[in-house]
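The passage that follows is intended for readers who have already worked through the single-chain material. We present the inputs for a multi-component assembly, then the predicted structure in tokenized form, and finally a short commentary. You are encouraged to pause after the input and sketch how you expect the pieces to fit together before reading on.
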Amino acid sequence: MPRQMKQPLNDERFLQFARSYLRESFPNPERVGCPPDRELQTLIESPLKANSSLTEHLSCCSPCYSRYAALLEAQRIRLRRKAFDRLVAFYRQTPARLAWVSGALVLLSIFWIFIWRAPQPAYSAFTLDLTAASETRGANSNSSGPVARIPKRPLQLKIQLPLGSKEGLYLVSLDAGKGVVWSHEAEARLVDHVIALEVRADLRSLPAGRYEILLQSGFEKIEYPIQITRP
Amino acid sequence: MDMTTREPGSEGINPVDRLGRKINPEVLRVAEQLRKRLFSYGEKMLGDAAVVANLLEESGAAVSRILQRNPETSTAIRDLQAYLFRVFIRKINRLLRQQPQLSNWEVASFIDYRESMEGKVVLDEFLGNCDPVTRQMLYRRIEGFSWKEIGKFYRVSAHAAEARCSQAVQRVRRKLGYRD
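Having made your guess, compare it with the prediction:
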């Protein structure tokens, strides 16, 4: 529904005007045609069952409207207090429920702390020196060269790239022979005259054994054999 | 010769309208009962007793015509007093909307800006035309109930209650020619 359509009935000025207009503009000192208080009470308590013609009379009789408004006000206060009281009574009258609710909250807190928010692994620094490796050309690879040994644990891996490598974004991946089992992107920068990049690698989930580490940036591709060992 | 001045409206309501048609005796009786109240309201709004007297006669004639034209309407009108009052209010509002300036200071202070004037006309028209349930919903809204609370009483959702009242107000505004 457009917002404008709801405006008059949510506009405090309009409601205030209506309040004073209905309460003051139709004086009826002789109370001509006014219903008994009991009927107004019925209209308040069960509006769908009450005599609906009363509403017409209320629209042009300020004393009746004022009485009706007073009864409505009392009902409104009663209803709002009832809702609050129900909440208080829920806790006061049934301490067992309170215990259950508190227990559930404690369990939820434990679940939050120990399970859902599992502690982050501590990453230890490890440098992999590939400065001696050379870029792969064609189908040849340097798999026959020396094998670097990497412990099977969370590592802050610093990889020193071969001489002549360029700075920029590299895709670092581990190939187990059947396919890539882990990969990550990292930016290579020149640090102390060596091009190096840093990645975080949690190798705990990988089985120990021989892998190929691959570094790719554009057409540049470096492969190097590594051995993941038990810590 | 009687030299006492008589206040307009104090002499009773003419039993025939300006075209000479007889006014329904039931309407005349009710108009007589309400005369004091209608004058009090009319004078507050218009400030001219003669105009109010004229409007009262017109209202009585209009209600009488409605009852004569369609006898089934008489059973549909649940409260003839309230119905006549609303017809009278509608006639006053029509006159107020035609007047560019409000002459009566009391009206001017009561309706201190044009927006409230619109509010008054819309409210009167709304209360005169809508069904009893929508009217009750409006009363509750005016008296500070939330839409959720109103919905509970009439077994509808808060949105349905709000939409029902808002659409009724919107219909009235469109009918009166006010912009959305």
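Commentary: Chain B touches chain A through 48 residues (CB under 8 Å). Chain B has two domains: 11-111, 113-180. How closely did your sketch match?
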